[in-house]
Write a structure and sequence with these properties.
This protein is mainly β and 356 residues long. It has helices spanning 11-23, 103-106, 263-267, and strands at 2-7, 28-33, 43-50, 53-60, 69-74, 111-113, 120-126, 129-137, 140-148, 150-151, 156-162, 164-165, 182-183, 205-209, 220-223, 227-228, 231-232, 253-256, 276-277, 280-281, 283-285, 289-291, 298-299, 303-304, 308-312, 320-324, 327-333, 348-353.
């Protein structure tokens, strides 16, 4: 278990420092290349044992051309194969662009925008997760990470991977409620807007097998909101199981609820004014449920994200620490805290337990 806050100067520097710190805290490095060699630089992959399964992820960026975006991939069941590239691993979840260049393509699938000169990062780690926050410019934060849900029941899976869809440059200040934004296990992201389509490609993914009416041999869920306007979302995309040369790509399904949706978030008025109950600052759990798109039935919660909560940032600044019930929490805006006008993520925030 651990906590780290450290200055960085570039994406390569960030990855190098994260790799070193995570390796010292139980992760195993499977590949790292921060060079600027054409077509080969900018790759990173790690694995961690979590009970009967493994948490695996890979990432890539356009180091050759000084890219700003880090693409994020999740896969299952095999050691990382360097020659297959991050998106070519067996049982890949399907999110994360199948290229290393250019940035304009990388940002069309799961990613995080780090810029070429990030300032500092915070990392929060325990046996079943590593969650990372990066300050990419003054008071502008991004979130990404990997882990295992604290599962309810004995279903197969639970590993997750998330990035962040950046949309604060659009023409209003309502990014905290936008369908096209995505933060952590979001539970709200969907195609129900005229701005874009294909939000399933930027959403968090969760490994799950054998759930009610799940496609045969299916491995993956996407964390979405389930609505396209007033009708249930039906486009969840496919994985990349065909990477194994044997299996066809398999349709994915959906986990709903999380940071911006579901009873826990709604109970604490996530987008309203700050909440203070008997001196305690209200937080809400990220607790996804399974949506059976064949019957419309909903199951769960399937589990919760450990040591992470939604939080209202109205009275707080990124990096502030709150002691509550003997635990220390470090809080951050979802991206840029509201201060009037456009270009913010409102007062939506995330709180991470600091385990020293």
């Amino acid at each position: 278990m651990g906590y780290k806050n450290e200055a960085v100067t570039s994406i390569g520097d960030l990855i190098t420092k994260l790799n070193s710190w995570m390796t010292s805290n139980g992760w195993t490095n499977e590949h790292i290349d921060t060079s600027t060699d054409a077509g080969t630089g900018g790759e990173w992959a790690m694995v961690r044992s979590s009970g009967a399964t493994n948490i695996r992820f890979a990432s890539s960026w356009d180091s050759e051309n000084g890219g700003s975006y880090l693409a994020l991939y999740q896969y299952s069941d095999q050691a990382y194969v360097i020659g297959d590239r991050p998106w070519g691993q067996d049982h890949d979840s399907g999110n994360g662009a199948a290229v290393t260049t250019p940035d304009s393509t990388i940002k069309t699938s799961r990613h995080v925008l780090l810029t070429t000169t990030p300032i500092q990062y915070w990392a929060f780690e325990d046996a079943d997760y590593t969650h990372v926050v990066v300050e990419v410019s003054a008071a502008n934060y991004v979130h990404f990470g990997w882990g295992m849900l604290d599962k309810y029941g004995d279903w197969t899976g639970g590993e997750y991977c998330y990035g962040q869809q950046n949309n604060i440059t659009a023409p209003t200040s309502g990014a905290a409620t936008w369908d096209i934004a995505s933060w952590h296990l979001d539970g709200h992201t969907n195609d129900g807007t005229s701005f874009t389509d294909g939000t399933e490609l930027i959403a968090a993914t969760i490994h799950a097998e054998g759930l009610a009416n799940q496609t045969s041999l299916g491995y993956w869920m996407v964390s979405m909101g389930g609505k396209t306007g007033a009708t249930p979302q039906t486009d969840f995309g496919s994985d990349r199981q065909s990477n194994d040369g044997i299996t066809a790509d398999i349709a994915r399904h959906m986990f709903i609820d999380g940071l911006r949706a579901g009873a826990p978030a709604e109970s604490f008025s996530r987008h309203a004014q700050g909440t203070d109950i008997s001196g305690l600052h209200a937080m809400w759990e990220l607790a996804p449920r399974y949506y059976d798109d064949t019957t419309g039935h909903v199951y769960g919660p399937m589990g919760r994200v450990k040591d992470t909560r939604g939080f209202n940032m109205e009275d707080w600044t990124g990096g502030d620490e709150i002691i509550q019930g003997g635990d220390t929490w470090v809080v951050f805006p979802a991206q840029v805290k509201w201060s009037g006008g456009a270009g913010t993520s409102g007062n939506l925030g995330l709180a991470y337990k600091k385990i020293a």
